[in-house]
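The instructor's notes for this session suggest beginning with a concrete chain rather than abstract definitions. Hand out the sequence below and ask the class to guess, before any prediction is shown, which regions might be ordered.
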Amino acid sequence: MLSHALGGGTICEMNANPQKSLRKIGIERIQKKIREAKFFLSHMIQSGRSTRLDHEHVEFYLSAFLSAARSVTNFLEKDDQRWWCQWKKGQADRELLDQMRKQRKNEVHRKGADVAHQLEDVPLSKIETASALHAAYAPSFGEPWGEPQVGLKVYYFTLGGETVNAIETCQRYVGLLERAVEEFSKAQAETDRLNRSFGPCHTARRANALTNPA
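After discussion, reveal the predicted structure:
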């Protein structure tokens, strides 16, 4: 009688549809946040090639990058904590997720991210140039003495007591997040397929059995 009163669907089925819609919206949102994080990362890379030592652009873009990236992990943690914990356990780079979350917390709520810069000499071809002559041609003018070097601000994180290049670390981080979102989306698509085949109650019991075997 209850199924009939609900239009032929079980309680589980009726409850699953709104959740499925919300989850789909959530996945689309974090996919956009991934694109947002990559946008700020691209600007970090570009600004990191500037010879303007008075600029703080890299730091500004880094702050925005950390916030966009944290939106992704925050969704995964809250939407399906069991899946997220299992996925993290299988990642060789899982410590990076916790370290970057801490960086975002420091940036927003404390003294700022654990990032510092130092001046380093880099090849002229690696920097932005306002000259009409593209920097890629610079090595030919440096021969036989080698390519000219220019001082740049290079940024470093302190993660777990280790000093690492900030931009390279952000590239690793966003790659890890992309993989997480891709695999989460596949997992949810498989859940939806099983729901259609066996019903959401059966799928929930099966998932619980796989996660918590007797």
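Then share the key points. The two ends are 34 Å apart (CA to CA). The chain has one domain: 2-108+166-211.
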